[in-house]
Amino acid sequence: MTKIYVDKCRKIKKVGEPIVHHHSGSTQGTWMRDPLGLLGPEKIWYMNSYKGDKVLEFKDMDHFKGGEVAKTYTLPYKFDGTGSVVYGRYLYFNRANTTYIVKYDLVTEKIAKEHKLSSSIKPRRYSYQWGGYNTMDLSVDESGLWVLYSYAGYNGRLCAILLDPLTLGFLDQYCGISSEPRNSMGNAFVACGVVYSIDSYNSATTTINYAYDIAKKSGTNPKIKFINNFAYNSMVTYNPREKVLYAWNNKRQITYPLEFEDETQD
C-alpha cells in the first residue's frame, strides 16, 4: 500500500477549538476519512457506538450532514472500540472480544487479512478512562498504520506497533511510552511519529500531557490545551492528509485544527 510522505513533519504545538460537523448517533462512536483518499477523498465512514457490525459510507460532508447514506456494510465480525480506521480501500478494526486485527476490503466486502497480537494482551482490558472495549486503537500517521494498546507487562502503560498494512505483520514496536497507565488517560493518537496522550476524556478543558517522540525514543509533557466541550470524548484520531484530528464527543462528530512547530524547532 502507498504510504503518505511529506517533506516536513513537525510536532504539534497547538490544538485549535473543536469544530462540530454533525450531531448524531450514540454517545460513543467512530467517524473518519481515508488519509490516502483512494476510494474518494471526500468520503466519510461512520461506525455508531463502540460495538456492532455496521459501517455507513457517505459521499461527502454535505451528504453526511443530511443523513444520506451511500452504502451500508455489514461486517463478518462484530467490532470492539472506537479505534477503527479506513486506510486505502481497507477498513482495519479490532474483532470483538479478541486481540485480532481484521483487514476488511471495502471494495470486495470480504476479509483480506486477520492477525492476532501477542497472547500477553487480553481483550477488553486496559481501555481508556471511559472504557468501551478499546483494547486496540488503530491510528494512521505519515509513517503508516499503528496500533496502540497496553498490557500488564508494562503496568498498563501505552505500547505502539507500526504495522505492515499488507500483511499486518510488525515493523516496529515501542512499549512503556506513556507517563500513566492507559486506563488513566482520556485518549491517544499518533501524528508525525509522535504518540500523544490526552489526560482526560470528560474534563471541559484538559491537556495533551505526554508526547513520546519515536525517533528520539524520549517523551515530554508538552502541556497542550485540549478542549472537551461536550464532556465525553470517546474517539480521537489524526488524519495526515488533512492535518486535523477527528473526534466523537457525546454524539457530536468533530474535528480539531492543528498547528505544528516551525521547521527550526526541535
From TrEMBL:
UniProt keywords (A-Z) are: Secreted
Q: Which GO terms describe its biological process?
A: signal transduction
> A GO CC term?
extracellular space
Task: Spell out the Pfam families in the cross-references.
Answer: OLF (PF02191)
Q: In which compartments does the protein localize?
A: Secreted
What is this protein's record name?
Uncharacterized protein
